[in-house]
Design goal:
With 214 residues, the chain is mainly alpha-helical. It has helices spanning 2-6, 10-15, 49-82, 103-129, 136-159, 172-196, 203-211, and strands spanning 85-89, 95-99.
Length: 214
């Protein structure tokens, strides 16, 4: 109790001690807290909050630029792979050009993986940092990305259609498969975390989840 009264961050240290299997932790922005990169030293806790906000904002911008470069390169590589064509000779002796990748598989697997790569790696890094204990950051990025795609992207697509005009879904098989597997994926996650092994993801469950990607 004497420590809690003398050091402001001691109460936070005690309150979060049980969240990591008994390992005490403090908030990253407070003295003694530590993230993957920031803060650089414990002496930063002595800086004014305004100065630390500017320093961390600049670092975040720098990191986001790096992520954007890597994501653009990754997406360009996936587009180069999925755009491959091959020529075959039919029974009449003429050449035909066909796609190597099925459009549905390319859209639902490779392109989806490329667009979701940043949040996947963010969740993976958080798991490593927390000794394979899930935190709020990883799950929040995935849920937030799904909500953004479902609500904001659809809203923008609807608002971009000129008044009095309409649009139809061209690739209905992709739409059907996306809708079905989206519901299946959410149902599977709920079953894993609440019924099969509550609050724990076992190795076989992770493998089954990964195999559901294709």
């Amino acid at each position: 109790e004497a420590l809690g009264g003398a050091v402001p961050w001691a109460a936070e240290l005690r309150s979060e001690g049980a969240g990591m299997g008994g390992t005490a932790s403090v908030r990253i922005c407070e003295r003694g807290g530590r993230g993957l990169v920031l803060p650089f030293t414990d002496a930063e806790a002595d800086l004014p909050d305004e100065a630390r906000a500017v320093i961390y904002a600049l670092c975040m911008i720098y990191f986001f630029l790096g992520v954007s470069i890597i994501a653009d390169t990754f997406m360009s590589a996936i587009e180069a792979i999925t755009s491959r064509r091959r020529q075959t000779t039919n029974e009449l002796g003429t050449m035909e050009t066909a796609s190597v990748w099925n459009d549905t598989v390319a859209n639902l697997s490779l392109l989806a993986l490329g667009s979701s790569a940043p949040e996947i790696f963010l969740s993976f890094l958080e798991l490593l940092k927390r000794d394979m204990h899930a935190g709020d950051l990883g799950s929040a990025t995935i849920v937030g990305s799904g909500a953004f795609n479902l609500l904001v992207i659809i809203a923008v697509c609807i608002l971009s259609i000129p008044s009095g005009e309409g649009r139809q879904i061209k690739e209905l098989p992709v739409f059907y498969v996306t809708a079905a597997f989206s519901l299946l994926a959410y149902g599977w996650v709920v079953a894993v975390l609440t019924m099969i092994s509550p609050n724990v993801v076992e190795v076989w469950e992770a493998l089954v989840t990964f195999l559901l990607l294709p």
